[in-house]
Amino acid sequence: MLTLTRTTSDNPDFRRLVVLLDQDLKEKDGDDHAFYAQYNKVDAIKEVIVAYKDGVAAGCGAIKSYTETIAEVKRMFVHPDFRRQGKAKQILTALEAWAKELNYSSTILETGMKQADAIELYKNSGYTVIPNYGQYVGVENSVCMQKQL
Predict the structure, then answer these.
(1) Which strands sit side by side in the sheet containing 70-78, from one edge to the other?
(2) Separation CA 68–CA 74 (nearest Å)
(3) For the residues of 40-80, what is the DSSP string, one character each?
(4) How is the chain split into domains, by residue range?
(5) Which residues pair with 72 in a beta bridge?
(6) Is 9:44 a contact under the CB 8 Å cutoff?
(7) Which residue, among 115, 50, 39, 98, has the nearest Cα to 78 in the 3D structure?
(8) Fewer C-beta neighbours within 10 Å, C or N terminus of the chain?
């Protein structure tokens, strides 16, 4: 059974999963990794979900305020041992529900062109591609998406 726990970025299991996420992204993004890493700090994120499968931290995700009405989805990751089981979808759905509770009307996110599985997850979850926002404007490897909640 999957247990979704609401926590903060201080959670040690979240921190361990983020280290694995960053290693994975460094491999996929190559030379572009340093650019993205500067925008993926996890200090002081108040809305984090850690997914546990039989007591083991299997995945994570977070939201943070982008504007008064828009939450940004950040740090989505499922440990390789737990992939292809629907866990990322469950984490994303829980993050969206939390964003609604916090009175956000939509969520946005950025992922990389090389993250085909992530792009598929987001499209299948109702996200549509939007023009690159913020620091991602003009970044060819970035895919930005949005979903109305």
Answers:
(1) 2-7, 47-53, 56-65, 70-78, 106-112, 142-148, 128-130
(2) 17
(3) ---TT--EEEEEEETTEEEEEEEEEESSSSEEEEEEEEE-G
(4) 2-105
(5) 64, 108
(6) yes
(7) 50
(8) N
Q: List the one residue out of 79, 81, 76, 80 whose CA is nearest residue 121.
A: 76
| Residue in 55, 56, 45 with CA at minimum distance from that of residue 6 | 45
Model pTM?
0.89
The arithmetic mean of pLDDT across residues 3-8, rounded, is: 97
Cβ atoms of residues 95 and 75 within 8 Å: no
Could you confirm whether domain 2-105 is CATH 3.40.630.30? yes
